[in-house]
Amino acid sequence: MQLYIYDLVGQRWGVERDGTYAPPAWHRQFWRRDGRYHFVVRVGGRPAGFALVRELPALGGVPAREMAEFFVLRPYRRRGIGTRVARALFTRFPGRWELSVLTWNVTARPFWRRLIRRVAVGRIATHARLKGELTSTVWHFETGTRRRRSDGRRSRTAAAARSSA
């Protein structure tokens, strides 16, 4: 968690008295379990990152999820690990998604833009969000389940195939 916060905000936040980044209340909030799913990414048995998927309030009776946090340690980046983990989570939790990235996070924005274009079924909505002094790019999209084709192989829905073309 500390490496993630440092990588994300670095000099934007100061170090706490105990040497950690972010106040203890932030850490307690992050690890709450209600409506949240925590995943540790491992490569060769070693921790390589984590993801936090959070349930959002249903809109019109349709549940939604948020990729609340997502982190891959630098030595494991650009090896397809983050893409595989994110795709696995979108497959595990099909349906409506919201994903936001701080606008100054120039590494994450292109990664998510490309990935969302590949996994989204149908329309992708994007807008800017201002929260305090932080501006984020926010994507709203849906993911679908994979169906078995008549030949037994897996294929994406027709809508998914059209949206990624």
Summarize the structure.
The protein is of the alpha+beta class. It contains 5 helices and 8 strands, in the order ααβββαβαββββα. Strands 1-2-3-4-6-5 form a 6-stranded mixed β-sheet, covered by helices on one side. A two-stranded antiparallel ribbon has the order 7-8.
General description of the model:
It is a single chain. The protein is 28% helix and 38% strand. The chain has five helices and eight strands, in the order ααβββαβαββββα. It has helices spanning 2-9, 24-30, 81-92, 108-119, 158-164; strands spanning 36-43, 46-59, 62-72, 95-102, 125-131, 134-143, 147-148, 154-155. Strands 1-2-3-4-6-5 form a six-stranded mixed beta sheet, covered by helices on one side. Strand 5 (125-131) and strand 6 form a beta hairpin. The longest helix has 12 residues, at 81-92. The termini are far apart.
CATH architecture: 3-Layer(aba) Sandwich
CATH superfamily: Gcn5-related N-acetyltransferase (GNAT)
What is the number of helices? 5
- The CATH topology name reads Aminopeptidase
Major β-sheet, in short? 6 strands, mixed
Q: How large a portion of the residues is in β-strands, by DSSP E?
A: 35-45%
- The succession of helices and strands, N to C, reads HHEEEHEHEEEEH
Structural class label = alpha+beta
Strands side by side in the biggest sheet: 1-2-3-4-6-5
**Residue-averaged pLDDT, rounded?**
80
- Which of globular, elongated, flat, extended, rod-shaped describes the shape? globular
Number of domains: 1
Gap between N and C termini, in Å?
37 Å
